Amino acid sequence: MVAVGITEIENIKKRIRVCDYLVVAQLFLQNNFLLKRPLRFDDIKPRLLGHWGTCHGINVVYANLKTFFQDDPNFSFILGPGHGFPALQANLFIDGDLEKINPRATRDKGGLEYICKNFSWPDGFPSHASPSTPGVITEGGELGYALANAYGLCLGHSEKTIAVLIGDGELETATAIGSLNLQNLLSGSKNGKVLPILHLNGYKISAPSIYARKSERELNEMLRGFGFAPIWINNEDPEEFQKALEKEIDSPFYIYKNQKGYGGPNQYHHSHQIPLKKPKTDETELKTLEEWLKSYNFQELFDEERGFGRD
Fold this sequence. Notes:
The protein is α/β, with parallel strands linked by helices. The chain has one domain (about 5-300): Rossmann fold (3-Layer(aba) Sandwich). Helix content is about 35%, strand content about 10%. It is built from 11 helices and 7 strands. The protein has a 5-stranded parallel β-sheet, sandwiched between helices. It has a two-stranded antiparallel ribbon with strand order 4-5. Strand 4 (about 205) and strand 5 (about 205-210) form a beta hairpin. It is globular.
């Protein structure tokens, strides 16, 4: 854990922008990954398959945790919504973790083109987290049983801290709800610490989530009944997120609230999967996609010659 200052806060914001850009590029592009020229129809993948809705939230959580726990070798992260895989892959890519198991995923222009073109691509990367992903143990990710896996990893390992991101639709599953009881069963000095983070973005696939429709008081009382101390994070500000992580409190349960699909095209901001359906054939949607990608100012954050993390 580190004391986070202005520089770290700005770096968190930059990391989120980088990863959001990489998510969009993975979902849509088969060419022209750095927008060296205006987008054309043939730059767009022939089949668009993946999920945008949860990805920005994953990037926000991952960036903040990565900064806060950067010096802790016993810290791990578990992602429940494995359908947000392009966000996980973006983070693993810029940190060099993906390159360790796939030498073609170099943190430079070539590697960037490789991961973007091959996301949801024949013989490439799947649309969901899979065991081929560093640190992933279950096909499709840990949706539903992420919290149970986190407690299992901490069992008998007092040195471990495991943060686990849970979707608000995921928390409606029997396994996830049942796993909340593990807080009372497995708390104690012989076991590690689990930090649940609920991504409260309002929707599950195409319907409102139950927990997003509960009042703050109802949700707090439910979590307290399971033995947790709720801590709300209500906006995108990394400073607020870091302050929440800094609170020394037993059995915290973080509730990160944002909108489903935040950061995408305004008219599609609640989209669960692909927010633009026809950018390969519709000029207006193609232009919207180009403006969306340009909004991240990725060229300010990526050096074509040196890539990421190179001096």
